[in-house]
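Continuing from the previous page...

OK, I double-checked the sequence for VOC domain-containing protein against my notes and this is the correct one:
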Amino acid sequence: MLNNPEIGAAVFSVKNLKRTRHFYEGILGLEAELTSGHEYPYLVVNTRHMVLVFIEGQEKSCRTPVLVFNIDGHDIYELVEELVKHDVQIIEPVQPAPDGGLTADFQDPDGYVLSFYHSP
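Thanks. Re-ran it with the corrected sequence; updated structure tokens here:
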């Protein structure tokens, strides 16, 4: 059935698009585009392998899905320190990943769990 699929997008329900945009664009440094002209506005964040879509309005947020950012070429400790400076909640500090790399988990403003991963 599914053999090595590529994830094209992840859709999230968020409480506040402005706050979400600030987090992904202002703190994480990703480019975020607010799209309107549809039934409701939504935020699109393009990454190298995936599109993230954020729709405002659902009252209840959840802790899934978890998005993993591959951060080879960056210092994971410095990135986590930068998150702490912005009062981002760190769920799991930098720790060894099962494959010998490093990982750290944190939350975005709506409680979604995100993770940094650095390969061995």
